[in-house]
Amino acid sequence: MNSPMRRDLAHNIMSFPRTVDDLLTNFWGITPRSQNETWNPTLDIKETPEDYRIKIELPGIDTDDIEVQVGVDNLTIRGEKKSEETQEGENWHVVERSYGSFLRTIDFPSQVRPDGVTAESKDGVLTLTVPKASDAQPKKVTINKS
User: Fold this and answer.
1) Of 60, 146, 66, 63, which Cα lies nearest the Cα of 101?
2) What is the CATH number of domain 33-85+96-136?
3) How far apart, in whole angstroms, are the C-alpha atoms of residue 114 and residue 85?
């Protein structure tokens, strides 16, 4: 029995990834994941008054295979997760992990300082701290009495 309510629920569930991609693109300027790409790492972005902090999951990737470029209003992370080589006599039964090149671009809502970016890799998570430009930080305004 296919009620209209069930069809609407199924449609909403199926369109949710597209809705999230639209939200990320419109608000953060993050390049959405492409259906054609074999692998794209997930990331989190946190904003503080001083900086943006990005955590991106890159398990099994050597830091030498990761490139980070920062402009005054965006950041690009690219790299490659290489597949394991198959040896003679090995028979894989299940292969669920994804491999391949990836590219993630983040457009910041305010300007940043490319020269102040720091990067740390720990337990397969790359953490980038991107300081905001000084004019992008909130400032307290002193009111002079006349």
Assistant:
1) 66
2) 2.60.40.790
3) 37
Burial-class residue 130 by CB neighbours within 10 Å (0-12, 13-18, 19+): buried
Contact assessment for residue 30 and residue 24, using Cβ atoms and an 8 Å cutoff: yes
Is the pLDDT confidence value at 5 over 80? no
| Rounded distance between C-alpha atoms, residue 107 and residue 34, angstroms | 17
Phi first, then psi: give them for residue 29, nearest 5 degrees. 75, 25
Cα distances from 16 to residues 59, 103, 108, 116, in angstroms, run 26, 22, 24, 36
Output the pLDDT for position 46. Answer: 96
Domain boundary assignment for the chain:
1-29, 33-85+96-136
The pLDDT tens digits for 53-86 are 999 999 989 999 999 999 999 999 999 888 777 7
Residue 144 has pLDDT above 50, yes or no: yes
How is 87-136 classified by DSSP, letter by letter?
PTT---S------EEEEEEEE-SS-B-GGG-EEEEETTEEEEEEEBPGGG
pLDDT of residue 34: 47
